[in-house]
Amino acid sequence: SQKNEPQPPKMQLSEQEKMLLNSIASTLQPATAHYTKLKLHPATGTKFKKHLIALQFITEETILVRAGKGSSANVLFPTDSAFKYLGLKKPKGTKGGDSPQHQYLVRSLANIIPESQLEFMIGAERKSVDLFLCLKPELHKDFIEAVKVSIIFYIANRDNEHLDIFYIETNYPSSNYVAIEIECSNPQRTGPVNIQKNAEAGIAFTILGLLPAEAKKFNPELITGLPEALQRKVIVVDALKLLDYLRERYDRRGNP
After folding, report:
1. Which of 95, 122, 255 is nearest to 200 (CA)?
2. What are the φ/ψ torsions at residue 83 (nearest 5 degrees)?
3. CA 51: distance to chain centroid?
4. HEC secondary structure over 86-124
5. Sheet holding 127-134, edge to edge
6. Which residues of 22-40 are buried (b: 16+ CB within 10 A; e: fewer)?
7. How far apart are CA 192 and CA 181, in angstroms?
8. Partners of 208 in the beta sheet?
9. Selection from 229, 241, 253, 195 nearest residue 65 by Cα
10. What's the CA gap between 113 and 136, in Å, rounded?
11. For residue 143, is it left (φ>0), alpha (ψ between -120 and 50) or beta?
């Protein structure tokens, strides 16, 4: 009978290993941050981490996590097997085949920016954006400040009526639709395409987030080469500075 059929062995993890795996499945962060949160000695945490990697429950990737010196860290990523083992539904993520760097930045921003939607579909053509939000002056005060301090390039709107750098028409609801696109590979090639398609889908502002290497060699022609109607719909920012500022604001208030 079916009861007598041999069952495949279930890989056994200690309670502490399960705690670590649960932590990794819930938040993308450096290995040391998980150890601190769980009060694990670094040597013990590293032993558990190696065991979880060997069982293919997690991977470890060296990526940029903050701006400035010492900006890289070893971040732990859960695999599909981890969610299956824990009996958890895999959270909505970014596009399949996504790079660890892109995943980390988009998910980290989604966790911090209020009412932001990850991998959101908009418009008749169902255009996908990394992050979407309806900008609200009070709710997104910190976000607006973060954009201002991390700006690399934008063309100022000549109208007098504006909300800081975002121009919002009160009688036109979708004028507060904002898309954040994190460009980790080739912004000169993919940036203009995203800006054009986002505008066609009804996005009022596209924020392009660049990594430091791309920010250093940023060419304003990426924006000035666009049709004039699109040029004021784009704000180019340093993605890591944006994330750093938001973290600082939320940490200061005692939020996660």
Report:
1. 122
2. -65, -40
3. 28
4. HCCCCCCCCCCCCCHHHHHHHHHHHHHCCCCEEEEEECC
5. 117-122, 127-134, 177-183, 205-210, 234-238, 151-154
6. bbbbebbbbbebbbeeeeb
7. 11
8. 181, 236
9. 241
10. 11
11. alpha
- Measured CA to CA, the distance from residue 227 to residue 121 in angstroms comes to 24
**What pTM does this model have?**
0.85
| Cross-strand bridge partners of residue 77 | 59
Whole-number Å distance between alpha carbons of 202 and 222? 21
- The Cα 206–Cα 177 span in angstroms is 9
Examine the pLDDT at 218 and tell me if it is beyond 80: yes
The CA-based diameter of the chain, rounded to the nearest angstrom, is 78
Could you give the dihedral angle defined by the CA atoms of residues 47, 52, 53 and 54, in that order, rounded to the nearest 10 degrees?
90
So what's the pLDDT on residue 69?
83
Looking at residue 53, its amino acid is I
Retrieve residue 98's tokens: 């996504």
For the four alpha carbons of 87, 93, 98 and 101, in that order, the dihedral sign comes to: negative
**Helix, strand or coil, per DSSP, at residue 77:** strand
**DSSP secondary structure letters along 215-227:** HHT--THHHHTS-
pLDDT in tens, 155-208: 876 554 444 566 655 555 567 899 999 998 888 888 999 999 999 999 989 999
